[in-house]
Amino acid sequence: MSEEIAVIPGDGIGREVVPAALEVLEALDLGFEFREGVAGDRVLESRGEALPEETYDLAAEADATLFGAAGETAADVILPLREAVGSFANVRPARAYPGVDSVRPETDLVFVRENTEGVYAGIESEIADGVTTLTRVITDSASRKIAEFGFEYAEANGYDDVTVAHKANVMRTTDGQFLDSVATVAEAGGYEYDEALMDALAMHLVLRPESYGVIVCPNLAGDVLSDLAAGLVGGLGLLPSANVGEDNALFEPVHGSAPDIAGEGIANPAATVLSAAMLLEHLGYDAAAATVRDAVETVLAEGPRTPDLGGDASTSAVTEAIVERL
Ligand code: NAI
Ligand code: MG
Q1: Is residue 160 annotated as part of the catalytic site, yes or no?
Q2: 204 with 237: CB under 8 angstroms?
Q3: Is the Cβ–Cβ distance between 125 and 133 less than 8 Å?
Q4: How many A from CA of 53 to the centre of ligand 2?
Q5: Whose atoms come closest to the Cα of 229: which ligand?
Q6: How confident is the model at residue 1 (pLDDT cuts 50, 70, 90)?
Q7: What's this model's pTM, rounded to 2 decimal places?
Q8: In the annotation, is 57 catalytic?
Protein backbone atom coordinates (compact mmCIF):
# COMPACT_ATOMS: atom_id res chain seq x y z
CA MET A 1 0.00 0.00 0.00
CA SER A 2 1.42 3.37 -1.00
CA GLU A 3 1.36 6.01 1.71
CA GLU A 4 0.26 9.47 0.69
CA ILE A 5 2.40 12.15 2.33
CA ALA A 6 1.43 15.83 2.22
CA VAL A 7 4.51 18.04 2.03
CA ILE A 8 4.13 21.71 3.00
CA PRO A 9 7.46 23.61 3.03
CA GLY A 10 5.96 27.04 3.92
CA ASP A 11 8.28 30.05 4.28
CA GLY A 12 11.95 30.88 4.84
CA ILE A 13 14.16 27.93 5.72
CA GLY A 14 11.08 25.68 5.55
CA ARG A 15 11.73 25.80 1.80
CA GLU A 16 15.29 24.55 2.38
CA VAL A 17 14.93 21.96 5.16
CA VAL A 18 11.75 20.28 3.88
CA PRO A 19 13.31 19.50 0.47
CA ALA A 20 16.31 18.14 2.42
CA ALA A 21 14.10 15.81 4.47
CA LEU A 22 12.27 14.82 1.30
CA GLU A 23 15.59 13.84 -0.27
CA VAL A 24 16.23 11.55 2.69
CA LEU A 25 12.74 10.00 2.48
CA GLU A 26 13.07 9.51 -1.27
CA ALA A 27 16.44 7.82 -0.84
CA LEU A 28 14.74 5.17 1.31
CA ASP A 29 12.67 4.21 -1.72
CA LEU A 30 9.57 3.18 0.25
CA GLY A 31 7.18 3.92 -2.60
CA PHE A 32 5.56 6.89 -0.85
CA GLU A 33 3.52 9.34 -2.88
CA PHE A 34 4.44 12.93 -2.02
CA ARG A 35 1.94 15.73 -2.66
CA GLU A 36 3.09 19.31 -2.19
CA GLY A 37 0.88 22.02 -0.73
CA VAL A 38 1.47 25.75 -0.34
CA ALA A 39 1.01 27.85 2.80
CA GLY A 40 2.50 30.86 4.54
CA ASP A 41 3.39 34.52 4.10
CA ARG A 42 4.05 34.32 0.35
CA VAL A 43 0.75 32.62 -0.27
CA LEU A 44 -1.06 35.28 1.77
CA GLU A 45 0.54 37.92 -0.46
CA SER A 46 -0.26 36.22 -3.75
CA ARG A 47 -3.66 34.71 -2.95
CA GLY A 48 -5.03 36.62 0.01
CA GLU A 49 -5.02 33.67 2.42
CA ALA A 50 -2.14 31.99 4.26
CA LEU A 51 -3.69 28.54 4.20
CA PRO A 52 -5.68 27.76 1.04
CA GLU A 53 -8.51 25.27 1.51
CA GLU A 54 -6.83 22.81 -0.86
CA THR A 55 -3.76 22.67 1.42
CA TYR A 56 -5.96 22.10 4.49
CA ASP A 57 -7.73 19.28 2.62
CA LEU A 58 -4.42 17.85 1.44
CA ALA A 59 -3.26 17.49 5.07
CA ALA A 60 -6.66 16.23 6.24
CA GLU A 61 -6.75 13.50 3.58
CA ALA A 62 -3.09 12.42 3.56
CA ASP A 63 -1.75 9.53 5.67
CA ALA A 64 0.67 12.02 7.26
CA THR A 65 2.02 15.53 6.67
CA LEU A 66 5.54 16.96 6.73
CA PHE A 67 5.46 20.69 7.41
CA GLY A 68 8.38 23.18 7.43
CA ALA A 69 7.55 26.55 8.96
CA ALA A 70 5.51 29.63 8.27
CA GLY A 71 6.67 33.18 9.00
CA GLU A 72 4.39 35.91 10.35
CA THR A 73 1.35 33.82 9.38
CA ALA A 74 2.50 30.88 11.56
CA ALA A 75 -0.58 30.91 13.80
CA ASP A 76 -2.92 31.14 10.78
CA VAL A 77 -1.22 28.16 9.19
CA ILE A 78 -0.12 25.73 11.87
CA LEU A 79 -3.16 25.93 14.17
CA PRO A 80 -5.65 25.01 11.39
CA LEU A 81 -3.25 22.37 10.05
CA ARG A 82 -3.06 20.75 13.50
CA GLU A 83 -6.85 20.78 13.49
CA ALA A 84 -6.92 19.31 9.96
CA VAL A 85 -5.11 16.20 11.21
CA GLY A 86 -7.20 16.12 14.41
CA SER A 87 -4.11 16.50 16.57
CA PHE A 88 -4.57 16.28 20.34
CA ALA A 89 -0.97 15.54 21.33
CA ASN A 90 2.18 17.49 20.53
CA VAL A 91 5.24 15.28 21.03
CA ARG A 92 8.58 17.05 21.37
CA PRO A 93 11.67 14.97 22.08
CA ALA A 94 14.70 16.92 23.33
CA ARG A 95 17.86 14.82 23.25
CA ALA A 96 21.48 15.76 23.45
CA TYR A 97 23.67 14.20 20.73
CA PRO A 98 27.28 13.08 21.09
CA GLY A 99 29.59 15.52 19.34
CA VAL A 100 27.17 18.44 19.60
CA ASP A 101 27.99 21.15 22.11
CA SER A 102 25.19 21.19 24.70
CA VAL A 103 24.54 22.65 28.13
CA ARG A 104 23.38 19.27 29.50
CA PRO A 105 24.72 16.30 27.49
CA GLU A 106 22.73 13.90 29.70
CA THR A 107 19.38 15.28 28.46
CA ASP A 108 16.91 12.76 27.00
CA LEU A 109 13.41 14.14 27.47
CA VAL A 110 10.12 13.86 25.64
CA PHE A 111 7.44 16.48 26.17
CA VAL A 112 3.89 15.26 25.60
CA ARG A 113 1.91 18.46 25.38
CA GLU A 114 -1.85 18.84 25.26
CA ASN A 115 -2.47 20.46 21.90
CA THR A 116 -6.06 21.74 21.83
CA GLU A 117 -7.02 23.72 24.93
CA GLY A 118 -5.62 25.39 28.06
CA VAL A 119 -4.79 29.08 27.62
CA TYR A 120 -4.42 28.52 23.86
CA ALA A 121 -8.16 27.88 23.48
CA GLY A 122 -8.34 31.39 22.02
CA ILE A 123 -10.90 32.82 24.44
CA GLU A 124 -9.60 36.31 25.14
CA SER A 125 -11.49 39.56 25.56
CA GLU A 126 -11.11 43.19 26.42
CA ILE A 127 -13.92 43.64 28.92
CA ALA A 128 -13.26 47.33 29.45
CA ASP A 129 -10.73 49.85 28.25
CA GLY A 130 -7.36 48.57 29.50
CA VAL A 131 -8.86 45.48 31.15
CA THR A 132 -8.32 42.15 29.38
CA THR A 133 -9.14 38.56 30.27
CA LEU A 134 -8.37 35.06 29.07
CA THR A 135 -10.29 31.86 29.75
CA ARG A 136 -8.31 28.70 30.47
CA VAL A 137 -10.12 25.60 29.27
CA ILE A 138 -9.22 22.23 30.81
CA THR A 139 -11.58 19.33 30.10
CA ASP A 140 -11.62 15.83 31.52
CA SER A 141 -11.76 14.27 28.04
CA ALA A 142 -8.72 16.13 26.61
CA SER A 143 -6.75 15.62 29.84
CA ARG A 144 -7.46 11.89 29.87
CA LYS A 145 -6.50 11.63 26.23
CA ILE A 146 -3.13 13.30 26.73
CA ALA A 147 -2.45 11.28 29.90
CA GLU A 148 -3.24 8.00 28.12
CA PHE A 149 -1.06 9.00 25.19
CA GLY A 150 1.81 10.01 27.52
CA PHE A 151 1.75 6.78 29.54
CA GLU A 152 1.55 4.63 26.41
CA TYR A 153 4.32 6.61 24.73
CA ALA A 154 6.61 6.17 27.76
CA GLU A 155 5.97 2.43 27.84
CA ALA A 156 6.44 1.96 24.09
CA ASN A 157 9.65 3.98 24.02
CA GLY A 158 11.36 2.64 27.13
CA TYR A 159 11.05 5.64 29.44
CA ASP A 160 10.70 4.72 33.13
CA ASP A 161 9.81 8.17 34.41
CA VAL A 162 6.60 10.01 33.68
CA THR A 163 6.22 13.44 35.24
CA VAL A 164 3.03 15.46 35.10
CA ALA A 165 3.58 19.24 35.09
CA HIS A 166 0.95 21.47 36.66
CA LYS A 167 0.30 24.51 38.83
CA ALA A 168 -2.68 23.21 40.76
CA ASN A 169 -1.63 25.05 43.91
CA VAL A 170 -2.74 28.27 42.17
CA MET A 171 -4.97 27.17 39.28
CA ARG A 172 -6.93 24.91 41.63
CA THR A 173 -9.97 24.22 39.47
CA THR A 174 -8.38 23.81 36.03
CA ASP A 175 -5.14 22.09 36.95
CA GLY A 176 -7.04 20.30 39.72
CA GLN A 177 -9.15 18.81 36.92
CA PHE A 178 -6.02 18.02 34.91
CA LEU A 179 -4.47 16.12 37.83
CA ASP A 180 -7.73 14.27 38.61
CA SER A 181 -8.02 13.12 35.00
CA VAL A 182 -4.39 11.96 34.92
CA ALA A 183 -4.91 10.07 38.20
CA THR A 184 -7.99 8.31 36.82
CA VAL A 185 -6.11 7.15 33.73
CA ALA A 186 -3.10 6.05 35.78
CA GLU A 187 -5.23 4.05 38.16
CA ALA A 188 -7.13 2.30 35.35
CA GLY A 189 -3.93 1.43 33.48
CA GLY A 190 -1.71 0.69 36.48
CA TYR A 191 0.74 3.47 35.52
CA GLU A 192 3.11 5.24 37.90
CA TYR A 193 4.07 8.88 37.68
CA ASP A 194 5.23 11.93 39.63
CA GLU A 195 3.60 15.31 39.81
CA ALA A 196 5.72 18.47 39.57
CA LEU A 197 4.89 22.14 39.90
CA MET A 198 5.82 23.58 36.51
CA ASP A 199 7.90 26.49 37.79
CA ALA A 200 10.05 24.32 40.05
CA LEU A 201 10.24 21.76 37.26
CA ALA A 202 11.77 24.39 34.97
CA MET A 203 14.61 24.77 37.45
CA HIS A 204 15.05 21.03 38.03
CA LEU A 205 15.15 20.35 34.28
CA VAL A 206 18.17 22.65 34.04
CA LEU A 207 19.91 21.28 37.14
CA ARG A 208 19.27 17.56 36.64
CA PRO A 209 17.56 16.66 33.35
CA GLU A 210 18.71 13.05 33.75
CA SER A 211 16.06 12.58 36.47
CA TYR A 212 13.25 12.99 33.94
CA GLY A 213 11.89 11.07 30.97
CA VAL A 214 8.42 11.75 29.58
CA ILE A 215 6.83 14.99 30.76
CA VAL A 216 3.06 15.30 30.31
CA CYS A 217 1.97 18.95 30.20
CA PRO A 218 -0.98 21.24 29.68
CA ASN A 219 -0.62 23.31 26.51
CA LEU A 220 1.29 26.45 27.57
CA ALA A 221 3.57 24.63 30.04
CA GLY A 222 4.54 22.18 27.30
CA ASP A 223 5.31 25.00 24.88
CA VAL A 224 7.57 26.82 27.33
CA LEU A 225 9.28 23.84 29.00
CA SER A 226 10.12 22.17 25.69
CA ASP A 227 11.79 25.33 24.40
CA LEU A 228 13.78 25.45 27.63
CA ALA A 229 14.87 21.87 26.98
CA ALA A 230 15.84 22.87 23.41
CA GLY A 231 18.31 25.26 24.99
CA LEU A 232 19.80 22.42 27.04
CA VAL A 233 20.66 20.31 24.00
CA GLY A 234 22.17 22.79 21.55
CA GLY A 235 19.42 24.73 19.88
CA LEU A 236 16.44 24.71 17.60
CA GLY A 237 18.16 23.20 14.58
CA LEU A 238 17.96 19.80 16.30
CA LEU A 239 14.39 19.55 17.61
CA PRO A 240 11.72 17.57 15.77
CA SER A 241 8.07 17.31 16.74
CA ALA A 242 4.89 15.43 16.00
CA ASN A 243 1.27 16.58 16.16
CA VAL A 244 -0.61 13.35 16.64
CA GLY A 245 -4.30 12.69 16.05
CA GLU A 246 -6.44 9.55 16.15
CA ASP A 247 -5.63 8.45 12.61
CA ASN A 248 -3.57 11.24 11.10
CA ALA A 249 -0.55 13.28 12.15
CA LEU A 250 1.64 16.21 11.15
CA PHE A 251 5.39 16.37 11.67
CA GLU A 252 7.43 19.58 11.83
CA PRO A 253 10.66 20.98 13.21
CA VAL A 254 10.11 23.01 16.40
CA HIS A 255 11.87 26.01 14.81
CA GLY A 256 10.31 28.74 12.68
CA SER A 257 11.17 30.21 9.28
CA ALA A 258 14.47 31.75 10.49
CA PRO A 259 14.37 34.86 8.28
CA ASP A 260 17.86 35.81 9.51
CA ILE A 261 19.45 32.92 7.57
CA ALA A 262 16.77 32.07 4.99
CA GLY A 263 18.05 31.84 1.43
CA GLU A 264 21.66 31.34 2.48
CA GLY A 265 21.57 27.56 2.22
CA ILE A 266 23.00 27.08 5.71
CA ALA A 267 19.95 25.96 7.72
CA ASN A 268 20.45 22.82 9.77
CA PRO A 269 18.23 20.12 8.21
CA ALA A 270 18.51 17.79 11.27
CA ALA A 271 15.28 18.92 13.01
CA THR A 272 13.22 18.29 9.88
CA VAL A 273 14.97 15.04 8.96
CA LEU A 274 14.35 13.83 12.55
CA SER A 275 10.70 14.90 12.15
CA ALA A 276 10.59 12.74 9.02
CA ALA A 277 11.94 9.86 11.13
CA MET A 278 9.05 10.40 13.57
CA LEU A 279 6.68 10.30 10.57
CA LEU A 280 8.15 6.98 9.45
CA GLU A 281 7.74 5.53 12.93
CA HIS A 282 4.17 6.79 13.14
CA LEU A 283 3.33 4.98 9.89
CA GLY A 284 4.92 1.78 11.19
CA TYR A 285 8.21 1.96 9.28
CA ASP A 286 10.27 1.47 12.46
CA ALA A 287 13.38 0.09 10.78
CA ALA A 288 13.50 2.94 8.26
CA ALA A 289 13.00 5.44 11.10
CA ALA A 290 15.92 3.93 13.04
CA THR A 291 18.10 4.05 9.90
CA VAL A 292 17.37 7.75 9.43
CA ARG A 293 18.05 8.53 13.10
CA ASP A 294 21.33 6.61 13.05
CA ALA A 295 22.43 8.46 9.91
CA VAL A 296 21.62 11.84 11.49
CA GLU A 297 23.43 10.91 14.70
CA THR A 298 26.52 9.79 12.82
CA VAL A 299 26.64 13.01 10.82
CA LEU A 300 26.10 15.10 13.98
CA ALA A 301 29.00 13.27 15.63
CA GLU A 302 31.41 13.21 12.68
CA GLY A 303 30.33 16.21 10.64
CA PRO A 304 29.83 17.94 8.32
CA ARG A 305 27.95 20.48 10.45
CA THR A 306 26.02 23.64 9.67
CA PRO A 307 27.11 27.00 11.22
CA ASP A 308 24.55 26.83 14.07
CA LEU A 309 26.56 23.83 15.36
CA GLY A 310 29.91 25.52 14.83
CA GLY A 311 30.61 24.11 11.36
CA ASP A 312 30.72 25.73 7.95
CA ALA A 313 28.84 23.18 5.83
CA SER A 314 25.77 23.94 3.73
CA THR A 315 22.32 22.40 4.14
CA SER A 316 22.88 20.34 1.01
CA ALA A 317 26.32 19.07 2.12
CA VAL A 318 24.84 17.86 5.44
CA THR A 319 21.86 16.34 3.65
CA GLU A 320 24.14 14.49 1.23
CA ALA A 321 26.17 13.17 4.15
CA ILE A 322 22.98 11.89 5.83
CA VAL A 323 21.80 10.22 2.61
CA GLU A 324 25.22 8.57 2.16
CA ARG A 325 24.97 7.01 5.62
CA LEU A 326 21.48 5.59 5.23
P1 NAI B 1 13.09 30.70 14.52
O2 NAI B 1 12.98 29.33 15.06
O3 NAI B 1 12.70 30.89 13.12
O4 NAI B 1 14.61 31.21 14.68
C5 NAI B 1 15.24 31.42 15.95
C6 NAI B 1 16.76 31.40 15.77
O7 NAI B 1 17.18 30.06 15.57
C8 NAI B 1 17.24 32.19 14.56
O9 NAI B 1 18.46 32.82 14.87
C10 NAI B 1 17.44 31.13 13.52
O11 NAI B 1 18.41 31.46 12.56
C12 NAI B 1 17.85 29.92 14.35
N13 NAI B 1 17.42 28.66 13.72
C14 NAI B 1 16.16 28.13 13.72
N15 NAI B 1 16.11 27.01 13.03
C16 NAI B 1 17.36 26.79 12.56
C17 NAI B 1 17.95 25.79 11.75
N18 NAI B 1 17.24 24.76 11.27
N19 NAI B 1 19.27 25.90 11.46
C20 NAI B 1 20.00 26.92 11.93
N21 NAI B 1 19.51 27.90 12.69
C22 NAI B 1 18.19 27.84 13.00
O23 NAI B 1 12.23 31.64 15.48
P24 NAI B 1 11.92 33.21 15.38
O25 NAI B 1 13.10 33.94 14.88
O26 NAI B 1 11.36 33.55 16.69
O27 NAI B 1 10.75 33.34 14.33
C28 NAI B 1 10.95 33.57 12.94
C29 NAI B 1 9.64 33.41 12.21
O30 NAI B 1 9.19 32.06 12.30
C31 NAI B 1 8.52 34.29 12.78
O32 NAI B 1 7.84 34.87 11.70
C33 NAI B 1 7.62 33.29 13.52
O34 NAI B 1 6.27 33.67 13.48
C35 NAI B 1 7.85 32.01 12.74
N36 NAI B 1 7.66 30.77 13.54
C37 NAI B 1 6.98 29.76 12.94
C38 NAI B 1 6.79 28.56 13.57
C39 NAI B 1 6.03 27.50 12.85
O40 NAI B 1 5.76 27.63 11.68
N41 NAI B 1 5.68 26.39 13.50
C42 NAI B 1 7.34 28.32 14.92
C43 NAI B 1 8.11 29.41 15.45
C44 NAI B 1 8.25 30.60 14.77
MG1 MG C 1 6.81 27.59 20.82
Answers
A1: no
A2: no
A3: yes
A4: 25
A5: 2
A6: low
A7: 0.94
A8: no
